[in-house]
Structure formats: structure tokens, C-alpha cells
């Protein structure tokens, strides 16, 4: 929460720091503004986090805010649904194009007489089949 925790006396952001205890290090917030009555007074992060948790639990959104958020999310959901439908339509068109190309290649394959041409057509058809499956 560094940068968001402000001093109660001067209103400026508090610095986060670590203090060494007997066996471990402990996190604190401290005001470092010269002239502030709370200058260099440390507050344990646990106290601040508990106070923030209590504050967050006491907050409830108003009905207007809830309705506004609901409308925003519904609009986003609907736009995503439209994008997925258009994407599915585009995929169906692409699969149809690939199937037409495969059909044309198979017709050419039947008419081909050279083994190198036949193997080239077979490789191309195999690639298109893999593309169609994805």
C-alpha cells in the first residue's frame, strides 16, 4: 500500500520501512516529512492493514452505483458475445474456402500423372486438412 497510506498530520504519503527486531524484520509505515508532528513515528503495517480491512468491510455500494456497474458489465458482455459470433461466422467462411480448395486440389490430383506433382498435391491437401481442423 506504499504511496496510498498518508500521514494523518501532514497528509503526505508515508514511507514503508523495515525494522530489525531480536529475531526477525518487521514492516512499518513512517512519515518522513521534516516539521511534521508525526515525523519518524512508526506505525506497524498490521495495524494499517486491519484498519483498511475493517473500512472495506463497512463499505457498501449505493443502488445507483450497483446499477451503473451492472449496465457497464452487461454492455461489455454483449459486445464480447457479438465479437465471438462474428468470429465464428468468419471461421465458418474460412473453413468453406479451405474445403473448396481441397476439392479443387483433389480433382487435379486425380488428373495428375507425374509422381512429383501427385506428392506435391498430397502435401498441400494434408496442410489444408490440418488448417481446417484448427
Would you kindly provide a brief summary of this structure?
Helices cover 61% and strands 11% of the residues. With 134 residues, the chain is mainly alpha-helical.
Give the helices and strands, then pairings.
Blueprint: E1 15-20, E2 25-30, E3 42-44, H1 45-58, H2 63-111, H3 115-133
Antiparallel strand pairs: 1-2, 2-3
Report the principal-axis shape.
Answer: elongated
Radius of gyration: 33 Å
Question: Structurally, how many domains make up the residues?
Answer: 2
Low-confidence stretches: none
In percent, how much strand structure appears in the residues? 5-15%
What topology, given as strand order, has the largest sheet? 1-2-3
**Main beta sheet strand tally, sense and closure:** 3 strands, antiparallel
Helix content: 55-70%
